Amino acid sequence: MSKSRVSGRAPLTDVSAAALAETFKVLGDTTRVRILDALSRSELCVHDLAGRVGISESAISHQLRLLRGMRLVRPRRDGRLVYYALDDQHIVGLFVQGLEHVEERGSR
């Protein structure tokens, strides 16, 4: 039996377990996954995100508010425009690993 990468880590606290579950819950929406996919490729404004994802700017703004609240995306203001990007490398890694898992499972 192989050892898990997290075997040396202490068990999750209730607070950590709840926060992790909430993060996965937020990621459980196809629109938000499409937004994260677009942002994993480049920083985008609401208008460009709406075009890429295929929903209204209002709907994109609503989803971005939720993603910002979970610290999955971050805004950057440039004059009147606000550009969004994935918050940090942890989010990029989580997205990439999840995608690899799904694609690997689909090829079996």
Architecture overview:
With 108 residues, this protein is of the alpha+beta class. It has one domain: Winged helix-like DNA-binding domain superfamily/Winged helix DNA-binding domain (Arc Repressor Mutant, subunit A, Orthogonal Bundle), CATH 1.10.10.10. The chain is 59% helix and 13% strand. The protein is built from 5 helices and 3 strands, in the order ααβααββα. The protein has a 3-stranded antiparallel beta sheet. Strand 2 and strand 3 (81-86) form a beta hairpin. Helix 3 crosses helix 4 (57-69). The chain is globular, with a radius of gyration of 16 Å. The mean pLDDT is 90.
Which features would summarize this protein structure in a list?
alpha+beta; 108 residues; Arc Repressor Mutant, subunit A; 5 helices
User: What is the second-level CATH architecture?
Assistant: Orthogonal Bundle
Major beta sheet summary = 3 strands, antiparallel
Q: From the helix content, strand content and strand pairing, which structural class follows?
A: alpha+beta
Return the string of H and E elements: HHEHHEEH
Distance separating the two termini: 22 Å
Q: C-alpha Rg, in Å?
A: 16 Å
User: Under the CATH scheme, which class?
Assistant: Mainly Alpha
Number of helices: 5
Number of strands: 3
Major sheet: order of its strands?
1-3-2
Query: So what's the overall shape?
Result: globular
How would you name the CATH homologous superfamily?
Winged helix-like DNA-binding domain superfamily/Winged helix DNA-binding domain
Report the β-strand fraction as a percent range: 5-15%
Poorly predicted regions are none
CATH topology: Arc Repressor Mutant, subunit A
Average pLDDT over all residues:
90
Structural domain count? 1
Give helix % range: 55-70%
